[in-house]
Amino acid sequence: MDFLFPPETDKWLAVLRIGLGLQVAVYALFLKSDWNYLFARTGSGLVSRELGEAITSFDSRLIPKLGWLVALGGHIGIGEETVLSVAWACLLCAGCCLLLGLFCRPAAIIAWFLHLCAAESGGLLAYGADNFMTIGLFYLMLSPLPDRYSLDHRLVKTKPKDPQLLGFWRRVLQLHLCFVYFFGGLAKCLGSGWWDGTNLWRSMTRPPFNIISPDVLIRFKYLLPILGISICLLELGYVFFIWMKKTGSVWLVCILGMHVAIGLTMGMYLFALVMIVLNLAAFGPDFGSLSLAYRQRFHAVFTKQLTP
Amino acid sequence: MGAKRIYAAWAGVHFFLIAAVCVAGIFSLVADGLTILPSAFDSYARKGELAAASVLGKEMAASNPVRRGIATYLDAAGSQSGYTFFAPNVPGYHRLILELYYHDGRVEYDSPHVSGGAAALRLDSLLDRLAEPGYEPLREVVVKMLAFSVWQEHRDVEKIRAIFGSVNQPGIRDFEHGKRESFQPLFSFDFSLRNKENQSTTR
What residues make up the domain containing A57? Predict the structure, then answer.
């Protein structure tokens, strides 16, 4: 039981809130020009929102979808296009509120709900980043908000949260990431292409991820098998080495480096950002105590030098 | 202490379901023969996949409230699918080429498009999904919708032939020897937009 309830401060929660706020805002801004086109009904958009919703409804009718909001808008005489635009604006606002720490809990719930609606209605168009955003927002909305760095805390002096409850939600996030990397790494290890570099070549030369020209990539062809094996071992070993004091920070830096590289070399910015945020919140250093430690060390060295 | 037990019980159920989803995903890859494991494992993996799926209630009737409850919860938590991105191997990619036939005999080529890069990533993901056997029943209707989205920008088009195919990427050695990607049509659909008739052919 103690493993599930380690006492924690709320710094990790502030990282998660600010990071996901940024993620939601960037997600909304990236899709701004295509939002209505992606989620319009049959005949007015790219593919029908209704088709995606029908597929989702096959699993369960209770899964939130944009069609609910459109139907609700229809009852009060608001057109589909307006409802979709309002949903987009609300999502952006929720992201900004999370970023600032204003109305944290309602903002987290609204962001989770609207993003889930969009991900489920556009199920045919969804990809990995959507799953991780839902995971992050799901945990954020259940966590003991607001944290002490939020505007909510400054405006309305809230009581400090139970450190064990804060520890519980961080532990849940940590365990979830271990599942993600262990099964992701295991699946990669089972493919021949990750051992000889073929998969890295294929992933980086296929559109829309072909940001680096194959002519440049070919110069590093001997590095590809090493990088491929490193990714497998990094993901598979995450579940063990991230917990150890000696290896934890090294593993975290390597995983963050991998996601930065995915973002920059393959253009998967949203995917990279959400993974970085989740990792930093789950296993990131205690930034406050770290800066305090550095200040103390700097102070000690500085006073020692000044002492004759 | 009571609240702690409730939290712990929730965490146990939560991670049990996530583990079942992940294990089902791994077993599915092995059962489909996509991994480096010998084919002798395939039948065992299929049994394992079915066992994991039954834990998730997928063997129950579609209307069963337990099955629906689990599906709703997993979707709400973002854990309805495993984490086998780009695994075990990176799949090939696909293209949809639209041949636009005008009244005056002109033929132009176009593809479905969106404005932003983030949406383009989603469109590519949709095209890759269409090639999967599980999406076969939806293929024609989705291609028709994509063709229709292009037709809205070219209202004087009489007929659209949609050609869906995979793009074969050259390997590292082939690329060094000058080989470049090639398009292999998988199937095509003809949509006649004036009289609302359509025909499809599979190659």
Answer: 1-161
